[in-house]
Design a protein that fits this description.
The complex is a heterodimer. Chain A is α/β, with parallel strands linked by helices. Chain A is built from 14 helices and 14 strands. In chain A, the strands form 3 sheets. In chain A, strands 3-2-4-5-7-6-12 form a 7-stranded mixed β-sheet, with helices on both faces. A 5-stranded mixed β-sheet of chain A has the order 9-11-10-13-14, with helices on both faces. Chain A has a two-stranded antiparallel ribbon with strand order 1-8. A 5-stranded parallel β-sheet of chain B has the order 1-2-3-5-4, with helices on both faces. Classes of the chains: A alpha/beta, B alpha/beta.
């Protein structure tokens, strides 16, 4: 449910900043944890000026330290919102996220909970090269105890963050860097929080459905436009939640059209797209009129140059859509 | 400099020194009874591990004065982060022995519902969070937890127990820095082998934490020192460190079996109390018998309990994925 008041056109990064500020105003148990002197981050700038260093905690640039400290804050009953600079560096914090945060409730029989949000800037498209472009979607969605969400537009970014800070277990927000200052969207200045997060059909279409998440949603929308010019009507489903996956929405959209293309920015092998494809095979096989197609990143580190060859783009997606429709 | 090692039960435990101010013989007697319970629980653990009844169990031995002294000085609002081998901490913080055994065995008396196995028990109401997979993750967590407790308006201190090996890790280095930056009310209790506390002190001085060195086999010294440093942490001094020299880290320690009374913390406490006429043979027998009965009954209860509910062990959320 969205309550619109005073609509304003803003970037995704501003939607996140504004939502975080509003949530910290609403709930004084929300604190932020970030690197000291992370000038591009949200937590250390205006938020710190407003809420003070006690609630906007800055620590040395050690991702494991940030994450373990955030777990400790959660143990004390606070709701830390942890901000990493890049997904690549967040790998150093996997022990805290996987062994500690995700398992805290389970291993203590529910005595302790880790009410923690982890904001991880992900993905390529920014010429970040092999150390600033990683996606951790498949890695983190594989971990029981973590909820993994990823926005594809400013509205979802605000909505997902609102949802995340109300959960009783850790939530990972994978924020596509390329979208931070991509398209603007008109958002209400305030909204009521969603009770659940599911997939969203962002473009209707009759012939085929493209399933995407994060930065790949906008590429898929562009691909659908290309296909429309060739007379193909392609729908686009934005997953938004990778774990738990909105399986019902996926199956319903596939069953309606019988043709599906899954778009995954990460490498194909062992990627999250493989999980989506497997679910479709499990639950919608008899509805399929063509094999499940996948358009993915290459099985290689993200390059600095020729990034366009690595990442799926609207041209590659459209070509795969045409192949599936012609099958 | 950190000064002399604080020790009350010097020499062979005859109690040459007076009790520190504010410490009564009744306090020491109570601490001694706690040490006996810990010793008995750990003996059960060692026996059951050797027999194969309890898998993956690591129990301490000879750390009774550290556990009983530190925990005895803590307030209810304080929180404890024990090490992997500190199973006795739970019973000193109010957890039933049958629950500890239940967790080792994955029975219905398991507070963790069969999910975790033989790690020290966690219980929020008792301010007790056992360790996870990493031996050092709890240092930075302790800093965050202490800061969080303070932000929420509490006046508690987080007490984190560490072994000397942990100091060689980056996690601990970073955690100390976080605690200092946050001026977090944390007490790091670092174990050292006999004669090893000065070397550890010299390393910890780099973090600008106030330090005390204590005879970790001396229940009175540990209790008194902990009480004092907790008051300082509560008063806003930020993180502090207490280095406890313990014979449990030497080959002659009580954990190795056959320890002599000059290094066994339990024997030293007993001799001290008897020398001061605060304990006689009959009362001592009663304490030992009580611990024996508690352990036997608890084991029986845990063993005969049903297996832990599979919904707890597998996690309710797993059904949805």
């Amino acid at each position: 449910m969205t309550t619109c008041t005073d609509a304003e056109s803003i970037f995704m990064i501003d939607a996140i900043r504004r939502t975080l500020e509003q949530e910290m105003e609403r709930d004084d148990s929300i604190v932020t944890v970030s690197e000291v002197s992370f000038d591009d981050g949200l937590s250390g700038g205006s938020l710190r000026d407003r809420f003070g260093p006690g609630r906007c905690i800055e620590l040395p640039p050690d991702e494991a330290l940030l994450a373990q400290t955030a777990v400790g804050l959660a143990v004390a009953g606070l709701r830390p919102v942890l901000e990493f600079t890049h997904a690549d560096f967040a790998v150093a914090a996997l022990d805290a996220l996987v062994s500690e945060a995700s398992r805290l409730r389970h291993r203590t029989g529910g005595e302790f909970a880790c009410r923690m949000v982890v904001r991880i800037p992900v993905g390529g498209g920014i010429q970040g090269g092999p150390f600033l472009s990683a996606n951790l979607d498949a890695w983190l969605a594989h971990v029981p105890g973590l909820t993994v969400l990823t926005p594809a537009d400013p509205e979802s970014a605000a909505e997902l963050l609102q949802f995340a800070v109300r959960q009783d277990d850790p939530v990972i927000l994978l924020e596509p860097k390329v979208l931070y200052r991509g398209q603007k969207a008109t958002l209400p200045s305030s909204r009521s929080a969603p009770a659940s997060i599911g997939a969203r059909l962002v473009r209707p279409g009759e012939d085929v459905v493209i399933i995407a998440w994060g930065a790949m949603v906008s590429e898929s929308l562009r691909a659908a436009e290309r296909c429309a010019a060739d007379g193909i009507s392609a729908a686009v489903l934005d997953l938004r939640a990778l774990s738990p996956l909105d399986e019902a929405a996926v199956i319903a959209e596939v069953a309606e059209r019988g043709r599906v293309v899954v778009v995954d920015e990460s490498p194909r092998f062992g990627g999250f797209g493989a999980e989506v494809a497997a679910r479709i095979a499990d639950l919608a096989l008899l509805h399929l009129e063509a094999p499940v197609a996948r358009v993915t990143g290459l099985f290689a580190p993200v390059p600095f140059t020729h990034e366009d060859l690595y990442r799926p783009d609207s041209r590659r997606i459209a070509a795969e859509v045409e192949r599936v429709v012609d099958f | 400099m950190t000064g002399e090692i604080l020790s009350v039960l010097r020499g062979k435990g005859r109690g040459q020194s007076a009790l520190p101010r504010g410490v009564r013989y009744a306090d020491v007697l109570e601490l001694y009874a706690g040490m006996v319970r810990v010793r008995r629980l750990e003996a059960e653990g060692q026996r059951r591990r050797r027999s194969g009844e309890v898998p993956f169990l690591v129990v301490g031995g000879g750390r009774e004065a550290i556990l009983a002294g530190v925990i005895g000085a803590m307030d209810a609002e304080d929180a404890l982060r024990p090490m992997h081998l500190d199973h006795g901490a739970a019973i000193l913080r109010g957890v039933k022995m049958e629950e500890v055994f239940g967790q080792w065995l994955g029975r219905a008396t398991d507070p963790a519902g069969g999910s975790v196995g033989a790690t020290p028990v966690s219980r929020a109401a008792n301010g007790l969070l056992g360790p996870s997979g990493s031996a050092t993750a709890h240092v930075a967590q302790a800093a965050g937890q202490a800061h969080g407790m303070r932000l929420r308006g509490g006046n508690g201190v987080v007490v984190a127990l560490l072994g000397p090996g942990a100091l060689d890790t980056g996690d601990v280095h970073a955690g100390f820095i976080a605690a200092a930056r946050l001026v977090a009310p944390v007490l790091f209790v670092v174990s050292a082998p006999i004669g090893g506390s000065e070397a550890i002190s010299s390393r910890l001085r780099g973090y600008a934490m106030p330090l005390v060195r204590v005879d970790g086999d001396d229940i009175v010294a540990v209790f008194a020192a902990t009480r004092d440093v907790l008051a300082r942490a509560r008063g806003g001094e930020g993180p502090l460190a207490m280095i406890v020299e313990t014979s449990s880290l030497s080959s002659r320690g009580a954990h190795a079996g056959g320890a002599s009374t000059d290094v066994d913390p339990l024997a030293r406490a007993r001799q001290f109390l008897i020398a001061r006429r605060a304990l006689d043979a009959a009362a001592d027998h009663e304490i030992l018998a009580s611990a024996e009965q508690e352990a036997c009954t608890a084991w029986e209860v845990a063993m005969t309990a049903a297996a832990a509910d599979p919904r707890g062990a597998t996690g309710a959320r797993s059904e949805a994925r």
